[in-house]
Amino acid sequence: MSWYSRNPDDLASLISLAPLPYNLAALEYIPPPPQTLPTTVNPDGKSLYNPPGPQSKSYTDFPKPIDSSNNAFDFHVYYMPTNEAEFSFAKQLHERIRREFPELRIYKFWDKAVGPHPTAMFEVNTFTPHQTGAFFSWLVVNRGPCS
C-alpha cells in the first residue's frame, strides 16, 4: 500500500517516524539575553524589526550536508528540440551563460535527451552560495521559454 492511500492517522504516524532536526540547534551565534526576538513592527507596518547581528556564514559557505568540492548545485536547463524557436533561444542562452558566467562549469549543449533527462538540455554547476544565488536570480529573469 502506498503512503498516499493510507488514512490521515496512519500518515501522521508515518511522518512522525522520521524526526526532524531542531533547526535552531545549528545556530553558532545566539544573541545575549533576552534571547527572545522583539515583536516590534517596522514603519512599513508589516515587517518585523530584527536586531543587528553578524552575517550568516551561509552567504559564503554551504550548510552541511551540501558538499561543494565537486559542485554544490546543478542547474539543468531544458528545452524542446523540435520547437525551432525554443531550440534557437536555448542555444543563445547557453552561449550567453558561458560569456556572462565564465567561472561556472557549463556543460555542452545537448540537442537530444540524454541519460535520465526527458528532453534536450544543458547543465550549469555552481560551487558557492554566492554563485548559486547570483545565477539562480539571473536565470529566473533570462530563461525565456526554457525550464
Automatic annotation (TrEMBL):
Q: Which Gene3D superfamilies match?
A: DOPA-like domains
For the region Disordered, give the residue spans: 35-65
Q: Which residues cross the membrane?
A: none
What's a Pfam family this protein contains? DOPA_dioxygen
SUPFAM superfamilies, per the entry: DOPA-like
Q: What is this protein called?
A: Uncharacterized protein
The protein's organism comes out as Leucocoprinus leucothites
